[in-house]
Amino acid sequence: MAFLNGITHHGRHIRDADGESLKLASINWYGASNINFIPSGLDVRHRDEIAQLIRRLGFNSVRLPYADEIVDPDPVVNSSLIAANPDLFLTATNGKPRSLDVYHAEVESMTAAGLLVIVNNHIRQATRCCGINPCDIIWYNDWLAGGRFCRIRQSEDKWIRNWETVMNPLAKNPLVLGADLRNEPRGLWGTLNWDDWATAAEKVSERLFAINPYWLMIVEEISSANDLSGVQSRPIKLSRPAQVVYSVHMYKWSGRGQLYPFSKGSYSEFAAAMNKNWAYLLFDDIALVWVGGLGAAGELSVDEQNYWSHLVRFLEVADADWGYWALNARKADGEWVSYGLVGDSWDWESVRWDSRLADLRRLGHGFN
Fold this sequence. Notes:
This protein has eight helices and eleven strands.
């Protein structure tokens, strides 16, 4: 597909410059947003091999989260964490790879394997996950007494400049699909409103268009990213309107604005909530919505089975684009991840071939 010279979406469908349609069947591969500053698994497997593993699983695209901390201060990477990637030492300044070097090398390996890449600014301070750190609940923290209480200080303009630093070297890579601008911007105790985030998303998008006007700009909802109803009254407005993609996340604990989380209730209740929160954009052919975060444990509890079966059924009906969380077998600290698809043998090669992958195949993978 010819992406660099004109990737757009028309209503709910992505199309390339030749008019061919594409459905995103994505996998999240995290690590560059966590405490080691680089994608996980590079200590035991070369990144090219992990790219081939992703292809064998049937995904056509990869969402790669990063923390602003890998941009500034861009720390030198612990050599043991990239032991299976010795070529990174040869190309690095003074033989010392930095986190952003590794991130860009990861992107190049994914696209060399024919995978589309979605770059995601996940968090500011590299950490295990999201939490409720007041220094990291939105894309900037200089509102918090000038940021002096925060280990990683950041203004909105610094956030945008970080985006430019990450994306500039990728400008001519035709398989870099675009930018997922911020993971689940939350605000403190519900204080963030959609208009503030929409305005910031528009600002950073226009700056990134100056680097490559064909990138898709992916905008998540605020809070837990499971409600796009605000788009009805306040859509994202860009100079290239066909480049806007909205994104939601759907997990068993999701259910903002509902009486109970999505792990409870009937399918009809679940479907009604999806239609109200985001699927109206698809069914009315208004905009593309990418369900960029969804996942389940390998051994489903009763509640999780309820959520997962309802979600898979609804995504099939809606023919929606999606992204599974996650590839990783373990977190950066070594803790086993029940949601991961890589096996638990520390080899980054074995796969948990269970009902989740069977369901994802039914939804439609890019290479199957």
